[in-house]
Design brief:
Blueprint lengths: L6 E7 L4 E7 L4 E7 L4 H4 L1 H16 L9 E8 L8 H11 L5 E6 H10 L4 E6 L3 E7 L2 E5 L12 H17 L6 H10 L7 H13 L2 H9 L3 H21 L8 E6 L9 H8 L5 E4 L5 H12 L6 H11 L17 E2 L2
C-alpha cells in the first residue's frame, strides 16, 4: 500500500462546536470544517444529525462531483457513548456512506484519550463545561464521574462558575467576608449578582460555566475565596483520578488533560490537582485537538497503523490542509473552513 492512498474522516462533536477533518492514511489533512454544536443531549438527536449532515456536505464540497471514496469514518461525539445513541448514530452514518466504508462511533471522551495516548492504556481527565474521567485498560472503557451538572461535574467550568456566584451572593448577604469575585462578576454580568438571578437561571449551565474565567482571574489577583474554590475543584478532580486508577494494572498512571480549564492561569488547575497526587500519576497535555483522537479511531477501524510520522504530518497539515481549490465554495450554516 502506498502512503496517502486512502481518504478517511474524523469527527469530534461537542456541546460547543463540531470539528471535522478529511485526511489521508499517511496523516495528511485534506480539508477541515468547524461548525456548531452536535451534542444530542443538548440539542436533540434530530438536530444533531442535521448539523452533522450539513457539515459532511461542506467537508466534501471542494471536490464537487469528484469526491474521493471514504475508507473509514469515526464519529466521536458527546453523548455518543450512550447505549441508546450508539446504534442510532451508526445507522445515520451508514445512510450517508457506502457499505465498503468502515464506520465506528462512540463518546468524544475516547477521542480525547487517543489524542494523548493513541490507543494505549491510561486515563483522560476532562475539565471543561463538565468533568469526568474515562479509563482505558486492555481495551475496556470505564467512566468515573461525569453524571451531569445536577448530580456530578465536580471541578468543571460549571461547578467553578456556580461556586463563584454562590460566594458572591454570600458576600452580598453578609454571610461571609467580602471577595473580589462580587465586583468582578458584577462587571462580567453587567449588573449585581443578586439582581441577575433571572438571567442566571435562564442562561443555565452555559451561562454559569462561562463565568469560570472570572474565578481564575480573581485567583490570579490573590483573592482568597477564588483560591479556595479552585483548591476544592482540584481536590474533586484528584478524587476522580484516584478512583479511576483502580482500573489500571500498574503505574505510571498516564493522564491526558482535556478541556478548556487546563490552559487558564498558566495551567494553575493542573498544578493544584497533581499537587494532591503522588508521582505515579503523569500528566499529558496534548498538542493536537481531540479530532486527532477521532482520526486514530478511524485508522483503527480501517485496520491501518498510526505512528509518529502520521501524528506529525497530521499536526503539520491541520492548520493548512492540502486540498483542491475551493473558490466560492459555500459553507454550511454555522461552519468555517480552516486553511
Amino acid at each position: 500500500m502506498n502512503e496517502g492512498q486512502f481518504h478517511l474522516i474524523a469527527v469530534d462533536g461537542g456541546a460547543t462546536k463540531t470539528d471535522l477533518v478529511l485526511f489521508k492514511d499517511d496523516g495528511t489533512v485534506v480539508n477541515r470544517v468547524i461548525g456548531g454544536p452536535s451534542n444530542s443531549s443538548e440539542i436533540g438527536f434530530e438536530r444533531s444529525t442535521r448539523t452533522l449532515q450539513a457539515l459532511f456536505t461542506d467537508l466534501l464540497a471542494p471536490f464537487g462531483a469528484g469526491s474521493p471514496p471514504i475508507r473509514a469514518i469515526h464519529l466521536g461525539i458527546a453523548g455518543g457513548g450512550l447505549e441508546s445513541n450508539r446504534p442510532r448514530y451508526r445507522s445515520f452514518l451508514r445512510s450517508l456512506f457506502p457499505t465498503d466504508c468502515a464506520i465506528s462511533n462512540g463518546s468524544d471522551a475516547i477521542s480525547a484519550l487517543n489524542t494523548g495516548l493513541r490507543q494505549g492504556d491510561g486515563m483522560v481527565l476532562i475539565a471543561g463545561t463538565g468533568s469526568a474521567v474515562f479509563v482505558r485498560s486492555s481495551g475496556e472503557i470505564r467512566q468515573v464521574g461525569g453524571w451531569g451538572h445536577l448530580l456530578s461535574d465536580e471541578g468543571s467550568g460549571y461547578d467553578i462558575g456556580r461556586m463563584g456566584l454562590r460566594r458572591a451572593l454570600q458576600d452580598l448577604d453578609g454571610r461571609l467576608p467580602g471577595t473580589r469575585l462580587t465586583a468582578m462578576l458584577e462587571k462580567e454580568i453587567g449588573q449585581p449578582v443578586d439582581k441577575a438571578i433571572p438571567e442566571i437561571y435562564g442562561g443555565g449551565k452555559r451561562f454559569i460555566s462561562a463565568l469560570a474565567p472570572v474565578v481564575f482571574a480573581a485567583a490570579a489577583q490573590g483573592d482568597v475565596a477564588a483560591l479556595e474554590i479552585l483548591s476544592e475543584s482540584a481536590r474533586q478532580l484528584a478524587l476522580l483520578l484516584l478512583a479511576g486508577s483502580r482500573y489500571l494494572s500498574a503505574p505510571p498512571f498516564l493522564v491526558v488533560l482535556s478541556g478548556g480549564l487546563w490552559s487558564a492561569n498558566n495551567r494553575l488547575l493542573e498544578k493544584l490537582v497533581f499537587k494532591q497526587l503522588d508521582d505515579r500519576f503523569e500528566a499529558i497535555l496534548p498538542s493536537l485537538p481531540p479530532v486527532y483522537g477521532s482520526a486514530v479511531e478511524a485508522m483503527a477501524s480501517a485496520g491501518l497503523p498510526v505512528d509518529e510520522g502520521f501524528e506529525q504530518r497530521f499536526g503539520e497539515t491541520l492548520a493548512c490542509p492540502v486540498r483542491p481549490d475551493e473558490d466560492a465554495v459555500p459553507a454550511a450554516p454555522g461552519s468555517v473552513h480552516t486553511r
